[in-house]
Design brief:
The protein is α/β, with parallel strands linked by helices. It is 42% helix and 9% strand. Strands 11-9-7-6-3-2-1-12 form an eight-stranded parallel sheet. Strands 4-5 form a two-stranded antiparallel sheet. It has a two-stranded parallel ribbon with strand order 8-10. α2 crosses α16 and α3 packs across α16.
Length: 411
């Protein structure tokens, strides 16, 4: 197990930031997590180590980026359900509809839920088929294939499906109550191992929320606990273990969903705590996750009237994403949104406007817009009218490609 806390310099080295950016994710000396038998998988060794070879991952990502059209780049900025991509009510196979949809809009990733999982062989075929079709579409960029697998009784799509013979864990509140970070590492290692074997490459976990409001029902037992130092230690251990297992973890829900009384699925939610309180408590687990090398952080639809004070959810706030997550916490990985089909977004913003604002504010990967085509067109229009720069798009695509390379999806 990796240490639960490392220095900022060590974290960047672990991320492979040889050129000071995430484009060098796999340039480290340790083997890069792999997936689907591609170059860079565990056991094959990572690029780099001698002379200019350490620059090759950066060059490879930049070369791929340079080969992409604007339309292909913008498509990479979206991660959607297979239903949002194809228009079917329940997607369980990757066939002709998927192929045509990806030819039209080669999205950066797919997120799967319980209804997509109907049999062990079916799930593997669905993921393998989607990966194959995505590699044949657009610029040939393989997709992120993600799932919410936190462990516990509440959010574990795979383990709770009953379709797979995998280890099941109690709620993270129970894991946190042990006070033993080795237990969190055990969760991360086991979940990462079985997800990778099935064909996933991204897990929307761990939950980094500190449960400061005991009446919070949206997070509840999904959190490791109410002590920020304990939660930070648990989160760091789980992140490191998932990375060792070859799965990309995603810490969520920045800047912390543990104080909120509402649920962003249905409307706006607020963290009423002061800036000093949030920085000392809620941000601690995210700092720990970043120091442990976490490649993705999910930003929630959480307003902080006593911190950012901009009247915006964090998922649309330049203050929270740019000044705090990028600046104060030093995060250089992929900022992914919480789902944009939630009421906290849809009640206030049209799909195209919401998407353009997310990227203009500093986000990288937009999860589940309420209307994929309108959101995609909104971003294209924003670039063409100059309200969103091409350089801003390139920054996000470069981070996404670098994360995919770390997962072993790119050579």
């Amino acid at each position: 197990m990796r240490p639960t806390s490392v220095s900022r310099r060590a974290a960047l080295a672990a991320l492979g930031c040889a050129a000071g950016s995430l484009a060098g994710l796999a340039a480290c000396d340790a083997p890069a997590p792999g997936g689907n038998g591609q170059a860079g998988s565990a056991g094959s060794g990572a690029a780099g180590g001698q002379g200019s070879a350490r620059d090759e991952p950066v060059d490879a990502v930049n070369a791929l980026l340079a080969s992409m059209t604007l339309e292909q780049k913008v498509a990479q900025l979206f991660m959607v359900t297979p239903e949002q991509l194809t228009g079917v009510s329940t997607a369980t196979v990757a066939g002709e509809l998927t192929e045509r949809a990806l030819a039209e809009l080669p999205v950066g990733g797919l997120a799967y839920f319980s209804k997509n999982l109907q049999g062990a062989d079916q799930v593997r075929a669905l993921l393998d088929g989607t990966d194959r079709l995505a590699r044949g579409a657009g610029a040939g960029v393989p997709p992120l294939l993600g799932v919410d697998e936190e462990g516990g009784s509440l959010v574990a799509r795979v383990a709770n499906s009953g379709l797979f013979d995998v280890e099941r864990f109690p709620d993270m509140a129970e894991i946190g109550a042990t006070g033993d970070a080795a237990r969190a590492a055990e969760v991360g290692r086991a979940i990462g191992t079985y997800l990778r074997e099935i064909g996933f490459n991204l897990d929307f976990a761990p939950v980094a929320d500190v449960l400061t409001n005991p009446d919070n029902t949206a997070i509840g037992a999904r959190s490791f606990g109410s002590d920020p130092d304990l939660v930070a230690e648990m989160v760091a251990a789980e992140v490191a273990a998932m990375l060792d297992a070859g799965i990309l973890p995603c810490a969520k829900h920045f800047p912390g969903h543990g104080d909120t009384a509402g649920d962003s699925h249905t409307g706006a939610v607020y963290a009423e705590r002061t800036r000093a309180e949030i920085e000392a408590c809620e941000l601690a687990p995210f700092r720990a996750a970043i120091e442990a090398g976490c490649p993705l952080v999910m930003v929630g639809h959480i307003e902080t009237p006593n911190f950012a004070g901009d009247g915006l959810p964090a998922s649309l706030s330049p203050t929270m994403m740019g000044d705090v997550l990028r600046g104060e916490l030093g995060f250089e990985g992929v900022i992914v949104s919480d789902a944009f089909d939630m009421g906290a977004i849809t009640e206030r913003f049209a799909p195209g406007e919401a998407a353009a604002r997310f990227f203009a504010a500093g986000g990288d990967l937009l999860l589940m817009p309420s209307d994929l085509h309108l959101a995609y067109q909104g971003v294209l229009d924003a670039v063409r009218t100059g309200s969103l720069s091409g350089e801003r798009v390139d920054e996000s695509v470069r981070r996404i490609l670098a994360a995919k390379r770390r997962a072993g999806l790119l050579p």
